[in-house]
């Protein structure tokens, strides 16, 4: 792409050092930034760019596709849509790490519900969603599945609380493009194993399934084998307690498996 140069060079001396600077008109800098910005992914660089001027702030707004909110109470849900209208990936952290050591009361906060409602209303094209140390309810998972299940590719519930396999049932039955389901170290109420059966029957693109260090033990090995057979790109499986001999059929079907981990 040829971009005409419409600035000028200025040469000046500072002591014994020769310095050359170039000044550009604003039109050219905007064109250059529009071409460069899609290749800038580091959030710190993006944040710095958005502070340069109003125009660059608008360019960042119209092109930012991933954000991480390190603490869910540092902003409000109603600011998400105006600031990042084309968002495709969101990582949201709730309770501080101290909650893992029982130093924070259970009712302290960190509810995912208002964020889920905002996502369901304004971000139906969200592909990657990561909640960490947050209170998630079954109704939240149902809303996510019904509103954006057709495009959701990765769902990570990382050390989350208060949901059950009923909520995972909705994810398994409606999120048929899901490539990653991550539940590691989450506190999950197990009612049955139907959620895994739904994944086995409805998903053919799964690449990573992780429910390591959870209390999910009602696992059908036939469903695991069916997942391996239907999902030809399955490369990672981390499960809760099981006998390795029960996975013989799974190993036969999982031809591209690279990682397997079980919690004893």
Characterization of this structure:
By secondary structure, the chain is α/β, with parallel strands linked by helices. The chain has 2 domains: 24-64, Monooxygenase; 65-262, Ribonuclease Inhibitor (Leucine-rich repeat, LRR (right-handed beta-alpha superhelix), Alpha-Beta Horseshoe). The protein is 34% helix and 19% strand. It contains 10 helices and 12 strands. The strands form 3 sheets. An 8-stranded parallel sheet has the order 3-4-5-6-8-10-11-12, with no helix packed on it. The protein has a two-stranded antiparallel sheet with strand order 1-2. Strand 11 (236-239), helix 10 and strand 12 (259-262) form a beta-alpha-beta unit. Helix 5 runs parallel beside helix 6 and helix 6 runs parallel beside helix 7. The longest helix is centred in the first third of the chain and has 11 residues, at 26-36. It is globular and about 60 Å long. The termini are far apart. Residues 1-24 have low confidence and may be disordered.
